[in-house]
Amino acid sequence: MSNHNHKMSRRHFFKVAGGTAVASGALLTACNNEDNNGAIATEDVPKDKMTYRTNHNTGDRVSLLGYGMMRLPVVGGDNNKEDSDAPIDQELVNKEIDFALEHGVNYIDTSPAYCQGRSEKATGIALHRHPRDKYFIATKLSNFDKSTWPLEESQKMFFNSLKELQVDYVDYMLMHAVGMGDDGVEEFNQRYIDNDLLDWLVEQKEAGKIRNLGFSYHGDIAVFDNLLKWHDEGDYHWDFVQIELNYVDWNHAKEIDEANTNASYLYEELKKRNIPAIIMEPLLGGRLANVPDAIVADMKRRDPNSSVASWAFRYAGTPDGVLTVLSGMTYMDHLMENIKTYSPLKPITPEEDKFLEGIADKIVALKTIPCNDCKYCMPCPYGIDIPAIFTHYNKCIKEGNLIRDEKDSEYKRARKAFLVGYDYSVPKLRQANHCIGCGHCVRHCPQGIEIPKELEKIDRFVENLKLSDKKD
Q: CA 27 → CA 64, 107, 218, 283, 330, distances in Å?
């Protein structure tokens, strides 16, 4: 996106970009080196062409690609499953961090909540092997649980982050996921205002323990607007703000879920205040790297040499108000492709922006569930594997296996594919029919999904498929 200061319309917001986290741990489509079965060779990844943006608050020269440490590789485990017993593969994490730093990535994002509480320690081990001035660490006050709301408990979380990360200060400190809960304003006040925690964080900044103070926004727009009002009035100064931005959420976030806010509004409010934006969910929880085959064909016709994921990464990185784009890069091939996408960034053109606007319209029409597999809703007290259920449902939409009309010629094939895949992906005791509607999961969902309602809808669909099967 070319530099400009005027308010941008959706049509002229030319974007490009990279990865989420909350960081998004998405599967990338095949890379472009056909001589290596689609894999990128290490020597093909440039070391000196990374695009950087400057944080005007501190002068930090930040890589446009940020490394999200939300889903780290585990030893002998499946990273797509909630497996608290599987140890993090520290050797692989070290290698990936080494490669990232060597190839220009210098913004590393983590949280006390990631990887069942083990991300900060693994991140600290990997980074401590390098000079402190070679990277910027971002972490969060992830005080979601009420037990952490007393000031002293949140203070313990902060100092434990310094200990786990093996640092004396944090470069970018976020109040994590503000706006969540049934009443986002009230919960924000309880987490950060009533206990004087926000004032304490400002004191830590003044003492040099925090270099940049900001927040990540999820949910209640009243909280976002109020925090920016405080910024305008001089009560607090936000050095940066983390928002969800991708070519679907730019204009359709609220259409997908009423609890969400369109990225166009969030970005433009930050832009006019000159607050740097950190981008999460550039791949919309991986869904923009795993789009329906017809859309893949459209993208390949337009640019045969670009992966589906790279379109989304370029889009998110193009706005000049974006400081860095987070990507949860579990494996080396994710890391290498994303580095190539930003080395250097090729901004989205006006024609490409219009093309992606059409792609977004098609994706929204699919009516998938806006789950990004963050697993914040887990564990379910009744053992339901919520992310796996939603992932299977969305996958069947993508592959054309969600057909409701029994007269459709493809109905029998699609019915079998859905039911067999459901039993394979989700054990029977963890399927949607075991949901009692307790709502324990809802307040933890950054996307504001009415999870029990979605589970009930899926269960009804499954039961109808089974009844249809008995008729035959």
A: 20, 21, 23, 10, 9
8 Å CB contact between 180 and 224: no
Instruction: Return the closest-CA partner of residue 318 out of 8, 56, 37.
Output: 8
Dihedral angle of Cα 298, 303, 306, 307, to the nearest 10 degrees: 0
CB within 8 A of 43, min separation 6: which ones?
none
The pair of three-digit structure tokens given for residue 3, joined into one six-digit string = 């530099």
Q: Are 67 and 327 in contact (CB under 8 A)?
A: yes
106 has a pLDDT exceeding 70: yes
To the nearest 10°, report the CA torsion of 33, 36, 42, 48: -10
Q: Determine how many CB atoms are found less than 10 A away from the CB of residue 131.
A: 8
pTM listed for this prediction: 0.79
Looking at the predicted structure, is the pLDDT value of residue 3 above 70? no
Per-residue pLDDT at 221: 94
- Give the burial class of 168: count Cβ atoms within 10 A of its Cβ; 0-12 exposed, 13-18 middle, 19 or more buried: exposed
Q: Give the angle 93-99-103 at the CA atoms, nearest 5°.
A: 145
Residue (of 392, 469, 389) closest to 435 by Cα position? 389
How far are the Cα atoms of 53, 144, 157, 390 from residue 449, in angstroms, in the given order?
34, 17, 28, 11
Alpha-carbon distance of 220 to 217, in angstroms, equals 8
Tokens 């890069």 found at: 329
Closest CA to 53 of 19, 111, 89, 3: 3
Give the position of tokens 């069942």. Answer: 116
- Strands 61-63 and 52-54 turn out to be antiparallel
**CA dist., res. 455 & res. 384, Å (int):** 10
CB 84, CB 115: distance < 8 Å = no
Q: What are 339-398's pLDDT values in tens digits?
A: 999 999 999 999 999 999 999 998 888 778 888 788 889 999 999 999 999 999 988 887
Strand extents, DSSP E, 179-209: none
Question: Cα separation of 214 and 206, whole Å?
Answer: 14
